[in-house]
Write a structure and sequence with these properties.
about 0% strand; mainly alpha; two-stranded parallel ribbon; single chain; elongated; about 190 residues
């Protein structure tokens, strides 16, 4: 079916793509609920109306649906980023065909820098992938300490109790050492 970059694509995005492939109306409604507001904002900020935003969003969903159904859909970013970039391109195309406000669509590049956003997003994804690789190399207990503190938002006291440190300060010192190791690993993979 679709090619999905598993290191970037979340489980929620996978479920959404699968739901679209199956024609699940609830998934399509959820897609509209989750992503239409950002498209509406982008269109309104760039001389559009709510009706035009609805049309652009609907067209983007149709593009997404068609690509998924054809089996040549390759998601290499978050679904939200993909939908947003498709909507931006469609809106730029529409603005250019209507010659609205600016005669030259390239004038919108400052307002809607699609390529810049995509390049920044790709760079962020590369950095996150490198960080994930560094975390994999970090080993235990550092990996779990970093995960518990930064992802699970556990307090140093909770980490102290979980790992059996004698005090929260000792756990904090261990977390600091783990972060230093993670930094070395991260910068050595770049």
């Amino acid at each position: 079916m679709s090619k999905l970059n598993r290191s970037v694509v979340s489980d929620a995005d996978l479920k959404t793509v699968d739901g679209i492939a199956c024609g699940d109306a609830a998934v399509l409604e959820s897609l509209y609920h989750d992503y239409f507001p950002m498209v509406l904002h982008m269109v309104i900020q760039n001389n559009g109306t709510e009706e035009e935003a609805k049309d652009i969003f609907q067209e983007a969903v149709i593009v997404l649906y068609d690509k998924i159904k054809q089996g040549n859909f390759e998601l290499s970013s978050k679904l939200k980023t993909y939908i947003y970039s498709v909507c931006r391109r469609l809106w730029l195309k529409q603005l250019g065909s209507q010659e609205r406000a600016f005669q030259d669509v390239s004038s919108y590049e400052e307002v809607i820098p699609v390529e810049d956003d995509l390049a920044k997003h790709r760079e962020t994804e590369v950095q996150l992938s490198l960080m994930e690789q560094a975390l994999d190399k970090l080993g235990e207990p550092c990996r779990t300490i970093i995960h518990d503190f930064y992802i699970m938002n556990l307090s140093m006291q909770e980490i102290c109790e979980k790992f059996g440190y004698t005090s929260a300060d000792n756990a904090k010192n261990q977390k600091y050492k783990c972060l230093q190791r993670l930094k070395r690993l991260f910068f050595s993979t770049r």
